[in-house]
Amino acid sequence: MFNKLHRTAEELIQHSGGRATAGRIRILSILLAEQQAITHREIEQRLPQTLQLDRVTLYRALEWLVGKNLIHKVTSDDRAWRYHANRELHSHQHAHFKCTRCAQVICLSDLSMERSWHLPIGYQFQEIELTVKGLCADCS
Amino acid sequence: MFNKLHRTAEELIQHSGGRATAGRIRILSILLAEQQAITHREIEQRLPQTLQLDRVTLYRALEWLVGKNLIHKVTSDDRAWRYHANRELHSHQHAHFKCTRCAQVICLSDLSMERSWHLPIGYQFQEIELTVKGLCADCS
DNA sequence: ACAATTGCTGCAACATTGTTGCGTTTATTT
DNA sequence: AAATAAACGCAACAATGTTGCAGCAATTGT
Ligand SMILES: [Mn+2]
Ligand SMILES: [Mn+2]
Ligand SMILES: [Zn+2]
Ligand SMILES: [Zn+2]
Predict the structure, then answer these.
(1) According to the model, what pLDDT value does residue B89 have?
(2) Strands A95-99 and A82-85, sheet pairing
(3) How many beta-carbon contacts under 8 Å exist across A and B?
(4) Chain C bases under 7 Å from protein CB?
(5) Residue-level pLDDT at A113
(6) Single pTM value for the model
(7) Can you tell me the distance from the alpha carbon of B103 to that of B37, in angstroms, rounded to the nearest whole number?
(8) Torsion angle, CA of B120/A90/A70/B95, rounded to 10 degrees?
(9) Are the beta carbons of B136 and A123 separated by less than 8 Å?
(10) Which of A47, A45, A46, A43 is closest to A62 using CA atoms?
(11) Of B116, B21, B18, B23, whose CA–CA distance to B68 is shortest?
C-alpha cells in the first residue's frame, strides 16, 4: 500500500522532469496518502526517522512540487500553509473547509465556483480562494 | 472632514460601552477613512507623531474593536490580517478582492454568497471566507 | 572513467507577524 | 480621596517562513 504510493510519487516526479530525490518522493507520497491538506509541521512529523529533512529543504521541496503542479497549497487564517496532492478532482479550482475547533482542512471538490458576479471596472480576475469554516464531523 | 470621522468614531465606541481612549478613536477613524482593508503596519504608519502607540497596544485595540463589531478583519495569503471599518454594507458576510501585484484589499459588498452547496454529512457550517484574486485597476 | 556542471541539501542567520506576562499608568467608581 | 478596573508600554517569546552560502550528489559531456 505504501509502496504503491511511493511508486506513484516517483513516477509523477520523474514525469515532471526533475530529480526524483528520496525527500521529494517521500513528501509527495505522504501528501498522496493524506485525505486532508496538512501543514509543513505535520509533514515533518510524518517523515520516518531514517529520512529526516531539514526544515528549509522541506519548504523548498514543497515549493518545487507546487511549481510542478503536483500539489497545491491552501491559505488559512492561522498563518500556516497547508499542502495537498493534486488528484484528478483537484486539477480545477475548488473550495476548502476548515474546522474551527481542530483546524483540519479538507477539500470540497464538489463546490461549484462559477462566477456569476463581476468585479469593479478595470479589475482583472485571476483566481478565487474560498474557505468554508465550521465544525467537522468529529468536532460537532 | 477628519473631525467628522473622529466624532463618528468616538460615538461608535462610546455606544459600544467601552472606554473611548484617544488610541481607539484614532484607529477607528483611520479605518473609517480608508476604502481598503489595511494592515496593522499600515495603520501604524497613519498614526500621527503626536499619538504613537505601542505595537501591542495597537494589536489589542484592533482585537477589541473586532470584538465590539466595529471593524472586521480579513485573512490574506501574506500572513497579515487586514482591518476595515464595518459600514452598513458590511454588516453581512461579504467577499474580498486582493490584487496580486500591489496587495491592496477591497471589499466586494455586492458579491452574493448564498449557499447553494452542501457540506459532507456531520459537518456544521459557521462562516464563509471568499477572496477573489487578480489585478486591481491601477495594476492591470 | 573522469571532469565539469548543475541542482539539491543543511546550517546559520534573519524577517515578519503576532502573543504573553507583568508592572505602571490612567480612567472610573465608590 | 481612595479603591477598583481598564488600558498601556516594555520585554520576552513564539510560529512560520526566507535568504545566503558552502558542501554534496547527481547528471552530463568528453
Ligand atoms: Mn484542495
Ligand atoms: Mn470587508
Ligand atoms: Zn474538527
Ligand atoms: Zn494592484
Answers:
(1) 59
(2) unpaired
(3) 98
(4) 7-13, 16-21, 27-28
(5) 64
(6) 0.92
(7) 10
(8) -90
(9) yes
(10) A43
(11) B18
Phi, psi (deg, nearest 5) at residue A21: -80, 160
Distance CA A7, CA A1 (A): 10
Residue count (chain A): 140
Q: Could you tell me the end-to-end alpha-carbon distance of chain B, in angstroms, rounded to an integer? A: 32
Distances (CA, A) of B83 to A10, B38, B50, B70: 44, 5, 22, 10
Q: Which residue of B has its CA nearest to A128?
A: B132
Sheet containing strand B105-108, edge to edge, reads A105-108, A95-99, A124-135, B124-135, B95-99, B105-108
All structural domains of chain B: 2-134 (1.10.10.10)
* CA B140 vs CA A48, B60, B77, B112, B135: distances in Å: 47, 36, 20, 25, 5
Distance, in Å, from the CA atom of A2 to the CA atom of A30, rounded to the nearest integer, reads 9
Residue type, A120: P
Distance CA B56, CA B45 (A): 15
Cα separation, A32 vs A38, whole angstroms: 11
What is the structure's pLDDT at A109? 78
Q: Ligand 2 centre and the CA of A120: distance in Å?
A: 15
DSSP letters, B45-112, are: HHS-GGG---HHHHHHHHHHHHHTTSEEEE--TTS--EEEE--GGGGS--EEEEETTT--EEEETT--
For the stretch B57-89, pLDDT in tens is: 999 999 999 999 999 999 999 999 999 999 875
Question: Does residue A35 have a pLDDT over 90?
Answer: yes
Unique residue bearing C-alpha cell 496518502: A33
